[in-house]
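Model the whole thing, not chain by chain.
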Amino acid sequence: METRISEIEKWEQFLREKGYKLTPERRVVLEEIFSHHGHFHAEELYRRIKSRRKRKVSLATIYRTLPLLVESGIIREVMRCEGRGIYEHIWGEKHHDHLVCMRCGKVIEFYDERIERLQQDICKKYGFHPVEYRLGIKGYCQECQSKVK
Amino acid sequence: METRISEIEKWEQFLREKGYKLTPERRVVLEEIFSHHGHFHAEELYRRIKSRRKRKVSLATIYRTLPLLVESGIIREVMRCEGRGIYEHIWGEKHHDHLVCMRCGKVIEFYDERIERLQQDICKKYGFHPVEYRLGIKGYCQECQSKVK
DNA sequence: ATCAGTGCAAAGGATTTGCATTACA
DNA sequence: TGTAATGCAAATCCTTTGCACTGAT
């Protein structure tokens, strides 16, 4: 049976390995991210922390922390929407990909084991050490197809 | 035997369908894009046109044209690098995906028929009408793996 | 002739950064 | 204690936009 360390343990481990410090801010950011499911962006995370946590974290620190979380494999940038980076936490989650409707903005998440395996095959073939997979398909969802010019 | 219309014909057709005009600027942008292979961003395209073409095109027009070219399926945004959108032309090209090294920035293009098919399967399953597929894998290339902390 | 398209320069907006201050290790 | 991290505000920088002018249909 596979045991997986928690996101906070992963975070601590990553920071320690890199010689970074585990500050209260970094802890709060992680906690807040894992207190919700779904997608978020920097500004939104900032507002959530501001309204729900004792320890406030500045937007600058959020922006400085997100790349570290990505590097550690705890979150990833899923896509970019209206100029903003959209993230989701992936630690402890089953990997999945996205269908994004270009008209209504709806996001359908899907998982396909075969695609996952093929991606790994590709990396092996090129001797590439993957950190982040990202498959996104843009188009029109069932409801919107008839409404597009 | 499959015949495919040229990029300029495709461009004309798209603009006509949408009721847009084929201006000299739009023509030059398309021509310049197809005069090179590989990736480009807005600023770079602007400079290329400025130095190589009689008809200059402003950066604003470039920025207004790129989304139309994406919408028409002639080019696509491949990724985002240092805050900039990176594009490539896809009309008449075999679809492919990318491995991007997080250390040296090297981009490996690959093509896998099975992945293409699976993506189509997924869309069918969800009744989704795809416009743009994008699979990118970030990580470390063979040379860089040993150099990462 | 009309109305979309263009260039210019100014505006916008997400993200980054310099610097003084704070606080982990 | 020393050095990295934080907060603030200013700076960046890609991209968008308002407006007057030009030109394609």
